[in-house]
Amino acid sequence: MCGMPSGESTQASVHEPEPVRPTEEDQVAAAGSELIGGPLGRRALTGRSWWTPVRVIALVAIGMFALGLVQKAPCYNGAWFFGASSQYTHACYSDIPHLYQGRGFADGLVPYFDKLPGDMQYLEYPVLTGVFMEVAAWLTPGSGSIQDQAKWYWMVNAGMLMVCAAVIAVCVTRTHTRRPWDALLLALAPAFALTATINWDLLAVALTAAAMLMWSRGRSLAFGVLLGLATAAKLYPLLLLGPLLVLCWRAGRWREYGRALGGAAVAWAVVNVPVMLFAFDGWSKFYTFSQERGVDFGSFWLIMAQNSSDPLSTDTVNTFAMLLMLLCCAGVAALALTAPRRPRFAQLAFLVVAAFILTNKVYSPQYVLWLVPLAALARPKWRDFLVWQACEVAYFLGIWMYLAYTTSGDAQKGLPTDGYHWAIGLHLLGTLYLCAMVVRDILMPERDPVRRSGEDDPSGGVLDGAEDVFVLGPAARPARHTAHFEGPQVEWGTPRATGGSL
Questions:
Q1: Which of 116, 146, 172, 386 places its Cα 20 to 30 Å from the Cα of 416?
Q2: What number of CA atoms fall less than 13 Å from residue 428's CA on the CB side?
Q3: Which family does it belong to (predicted)?
Q4: Is the predicted pLDDT of residue 46 greater than 80, yes or no?
């Protein structure tokens, strides 16, 4: 801003800073941009063109989603129904067409109220996801063979999930207002495209992304309502209230946290209580199924079980997994309260969800969708993101090749058990690597790509630039307060007039 006259121009530049150009701060982004003609110009970056970041990223996300649909083409043409192993060898498996008949949608059964034939008894999904599945069933043509109906059911769900993907892309783009192009990490994530239509997780991911956007705009009640709805679709969004509690504790923002917590509780109750009152057994199936489910694909618990002559019981695994998760949460809380600067909300949200994934007794391949938007906000660095994505794509292929191996009979084509264990290990190491990079950014804020560009916590809403009122450890000395961040012109590492340093 050298040479800019003081007064009105300076004030405008503070309140309307130019978006950060990723190709100027990230070597991988700069090299990749050469594939499309080089770095974007000023018109595209400042929005004085129809090709604004939101539109570009939404279209890229939809395009990648469409490529994911094309990747499922072999299954759509018959592999879902006429060959158990071919849906694995083509890596195009999806729960959606199988559950159309398996969970009573083809027969017009009402989720949670009508019993299912067989051992499952009731739909094992949270209520809002069940509503999503039922709406798709209403839109599915009822003519033709059951296979034709199941195909249409998958296509209807794919269209609805594509809307969710577009919502996620828009929300992530707008959460960090000065860094909209970081959302390209999400839009171009190969694991996102490959797993988007395996299950219905994108509904909860979209609601969570919208909640994060609302919090970044200081709308704590709207954040709570959206997060409550997300939790009514999938359990993992509830985890975000933990790191937010610690951050609001450090900043003394109890009123805003109370609004968020209240909004989440009310929204969750509005969706769940009616079903709970009139169909308790059906409503509780999701929770009892999660508790009783044994060790399953993708977890380190499976490696232990398959290499043990006396594997742990389900109850023991549940206990140990919960203790490990609580230990990780305590570590995240300690990190948040002792870090030299208050961590960004997206950083802690990523860490706590990743901890749940790493310690859980099952890791379905679509669970990566939970992390992708948070990773784009927490660590917008192309090298680290692509390393993690490579590990996730390897796991995506590994689980299908392993299932092909176990279902192909005498042919034994696919990946044997030992090979699948290596794929699990690669997924775990990739996630741990990205977690380590986020922790390093928290302990050394000068290494954080977001804070290097002059931001404090653009996804933090009322936490952005707020003073600390409760800090533990060396960070509490010599000053217990951080400076209030007024804009990109503030140098955060400079001692303030109050005598403190950051």
A1: 386
A2: 20
A3: Belongs to the glycosyltransferase 87 family.
A4: no
Cα separation, 322 vs 320, whole angstroms: 5
Neighbours of 170 (CB within 10 A): 21
Inter-axis angle of helices 220-233 and 254-278, nearest 10: 30
Q: What is the mean pLDDT of residues 440-457?
A: 92
CB 347 within 8 A of CB 450: no
Residue 380, preceding bond cis, omega within 30 degrees? no
409 exposed, middle or buried (CB, 10 Å; 0-12, 13-18, 19+)?
exposed
Residue 434 near residue 217, CB atoms below 8 Å: no
Residue corresponding to tokens 């809403």 = 461
- Give yes or no for a contact between 68 and 365, defined as CB atoms under 8 angstroms apart: no
Entry pTM: 0.88
Tokens of 218: 């200081």
Residue 289 and residue 130: Cα distance in Å, rounded? 15
Q: Residue 356: its pLDDT value, please?
A: 97
Reply yes or no on whether the pLDDT at 7 is more than 50: no
Can you tell me the distance from the alpha carbon of 423 to that of 425, in angstroms, rounded to the nearest whole number? 5
196-213 per-position pLDDT tens digit = 999 999 999 999 999 999
Identify whether the C-beta of residue 495 lies closer than 8 Å to the C-beta of residue 334: no
Q: Annotate 214-235 with b (16+ C-beta within 10 A) or e (fewer).
A: bbbbebbbbbbbbbbbbbbbbe
Rounded alpha-carbon distances, angstroms, from residue 181 to 58, 187, 393, 408:
11, 10, 23, 44
Average pLDDT for 116-134:
92
d(CA 327, CA 95): 33
Higher pLDDT residue, 3 or 308?
308
With a cut of 90, say whether residue 13 has pLDDT above it: no
